[in-house]
Specification:
Layout (H helix, E strand, L loop, with lengths): L10 E10 L2 H10 L4 E7 L2 E8 L2 E7 L9 E6 L2 H10 L3 E8 L4 E7 L5 E7 L20 H14 L3 H12 L2 E2 L2 E2 L5 H13 L19
Parallel strand pairs: 1-4, 5-8
Antiparallel strand pairs: 1-5, 2-3, 3-4, 6-7, 7-8, 9-10
Helix pairs in contact: 3-4, 3-5
């Protein structure tokens, strides 16, 4: 057993990937015989694709007959780089090291002792086409501890303070269930709780309604 405690990993999705000798034939079989719907194909000519069954997606990977041993499972998680370091330190066989893929995923691939490949990755949301904007200066005053948290959060996410605020605002404008959308994953929310303790933030999300500035005169 490993002496190092594994990182806390938040699972988002899992996709089995089945190796098939002919991608188009496999798609036809799944959609015409099994009741799946077409998802996507990738490549020129296509050698990778997906079919859907409701909200579930199965990947199909075209391989030569002699490589059809073993399958692949794709795990969409929040912190693949942290998990990669843990697995690498445990001597796991690395098939493909971590990297950003042109289809909008940052992932890596390892192999278990039984010939199965396991891919762990996260979505990259800044790979969409650029949106041309013009920024303006807005006079903003923030509670001192909250401002310190925002600076730390922006550094943690590898973003500017401006981008962090824009991301947060745009998400809160969108309803989700009985609340609003959040740009923060569960892992990031746990980190924010650590930052709140670090900066001594002892008020809740309604605290701003009660803020009264100190009289420093």
């Amino acid at each position: 057993m490993s002496a190092v405690k594994p990182p806390h990993v938040e699972g988002v999705q899992v996709h089995p990937s089945l190796r098939v000798p002919d991608l188009q034939q496999a798609i036809d079989f799944y959609t015409q015989k099994l009741g799946f719907t077409f998802g996507f194909t990738w490549g020129d000519p296509p050698d990778f694709g997906g079919v859907n069954l409701g909200s579930l997606q199965v990947f199909l990977s075209e391989q030569q007959e002699k490589t059809l041993i073993g399958n692949t499972v794709f795990f969409v998680i929040e912190n693949p780089d942290e998990l990669f370091l843990f697995q690498q330190n445990n001597g796991v066989e690395v098939v493909v090291p971590p990297g950003n893929r042109p289809w909008g995923i940052r992932d890596y691939e390892v192999r278990d002792p039984y010939g199965n490949n396991l891919v762990f990755g996260r979505y990259i949301y800044n790979m969409e086409p650029p949106i041309s904007i013009e920024r303006v200066d807005v006079p903003v005053r923030l509670e001192k501890r909250l401002a310190a948290l925002l600076y730390d959060l922006a550094e943690h996410k590898g973003m500017s303070l401006n981008s962090t605020l824009e991301e947060t605002l745009l998400h809160t404008f969108e309803p989700m269930g009985n609340g609003v959308a959040s740009p923060h994953t569960k892992t990031t929310l746990r980190y924010i709780q650590e930052l709140k303790k670090k900066h001594g933030i002892d008020y809740d999300s309604h605290g701003s309604y009660h803020f009264v500035e100190k009289d420093n005169s």
